[in-house]
UniProtKB/TrEMBL annotation:
Composition skew (Polar residues), residue ranges: 331-342
Keywords: Repeat, WD repeat
Organism: Streptomyces lavenduligriseus
Spans annotated as Disordered: 292-357
WD repeats: 367-408, 409-450, 450-491, 492-525, 575-615
The keyword Repeat appears for this protein: yes
Protein's recorded name: Caspase family protein
Amino acid sequence: MALPDPGASRAVLIGVDKYRHLPSLRPVGRGRDRLAELLRDPTVWGLEQRHVAVLGAQASRDDILTAVKRAARETTDTFLLYFAGHGLRGRGGSARQLHLALTNADDEHPQIGSIAYDDIRDILTAGHRARRKIVLLDCCYSGLAGGMGQRAAPREELHQAAIEGSCLLTSASSTQLAFAHDDRPYPEFTGALIAVLERGIRSAGPELTLDQTWRAARAVCLRRGAPEPQQFGQNAAGRLPWVRNRAYGAPAEADPRARRPKAAVARRRKAERTLRVLGMPLVMLALATPVIPENPPVQGTDDRASGGRSAEPRVRPSSAVVPGTPRTPGASLTPSGSTTPEQRGPDPTARTNPEEKGVRVWLARSYVGEDAFLSAVAYAPDGRLVAGGSEDGSIYLWNAATAERVRILSGHSDRITSLAFDPGSSTLASASDDKTVRLWDLSSGESRHTLSHPGQVYSVAFSPDGGTLVSGGQGDAVRLWSVSDGSARETFHDQKEDVLAVAFSPDGEMVLSGSYDRSAAEYDVGGRWTWRDEKLSSDAITAVAYSPKDYVRAAGGYDKVIRTWTGPESGTKVFKGHTESITALAFSPDGEVLASAGLDAIRLWDARKATLLALVQGPGSSMDIAFSPDGKYLAGAAGKAVQLWSITR
């Protein structure tokens, strides 16, 4: 199918980065200008310079509405409208109205100095000739533009509110704030969208549809811990191609990320990460995120048989270019030193389920890193060390009992995505976005082996005897490695897209993996059989775990639901409660408690009954969790520290 005709298409890009009464948004201007460059680039779309109107803080309400009207009238193929800046909600009876804040906007009176999105919608529905309209909104509460009165509004209501023949992509739901880091070059959603346009999607064809674009951008945003984007559209607008795919036909090793200027990377890592919230000037900065639709309905709420599970021969499927587990934008934490749980007492952020007696959770202490946010955590099996991996590639080792920092391991050049101690607590494995896994000798702090991968690595785990390491990442492969010499042992290619999570069974004979293709797969390490469930989840599986007893498997991910099962033919228990994507799962050493980390909170569950035991809401969402070897503590990577929660049952 042909791309939109550049000569018959128009784009209006609005990025308001300076405000008089609200915090200014420096990344907005950069994102707006870079997006304009890409839309003009013939390797992406090829719009003529004069057909892309770029408006900034100096533009008035009339300037913007006139530009939109003129461009809409001139368009006979595809019209694109982009806005980034502060988003404000109406007050009183107008609470469901979205206001796009301009330079003179006033948060107390949203109607002053702003444009009501309804006014723009009126122009776009006035019978112009454009066969398709694309609207990208990167601001807080942007889901209001899709007619959402609540987070899970009926799809019919959303369609009624959408512009006929359009595809609307918003950075957040109607009730959510959007996030941006001041040191990052672009707003979260805009940056994710730019990344897709710049790099393309390896598993896609020569052109990209809007559906493919938001799926990839969504993955990036969720991995970063940003609010889940939304997508609304009619007349199959999202399934039509709109730009060229730069990754199509490119060599697998041609990764544009490898060409990032070193100076820019250094500045990004050293800059202080100041989190700002859009539409909330008294909280901090504001900005928006990427675009995406509501999650598909969860498939089943009761135990079910093994429909969709299959043991199939290994056939190499196509690979995809997307994510891993999301990272958190949580606030930095203040260390509490070596205070004992008894000295601190119960923490008000931990709530016990009133139906379950004898479960108490409170914050025991915090292990503090430096400037970068922490994205991975591991607890040594001997109980002596806690490890935390950061977004800048550093790995911190702390004394578990005193919270004293023991050592910093340096060698990775990008975000740490997963950490694992070997059973003897002498080796630490670290996975990274820099396409490597490193095996660290903890006695010397030296990197013994570097295991190279074709793409970003998202998850690692040791076998129970410590002799084998399993890894999963970009592409469709689950890889087994020899720990002694770092050599590759076996590679499984049964899943169709990125492998986001891996785990070893308690006896070391099986490996469980979760994929972006929504499937869970289990492999016999000896290579004799493979089992795969393609219908286990309604969305990407980002976390998997084995219970230490009874061979209970667990999986969770973007659909916010956890499922456990004991074998290919068993029924499935369903754990519901998370309101945001699940990022990590961990069973207690006795297998009685299942802990889940999400972008909303940590939850502790009765593993047998699938009932909630406790809800832990700390200063920031936890990206990764790990139990202590005695099961009395749960460590969670959140913000710039690892929080240690004491659990009494």
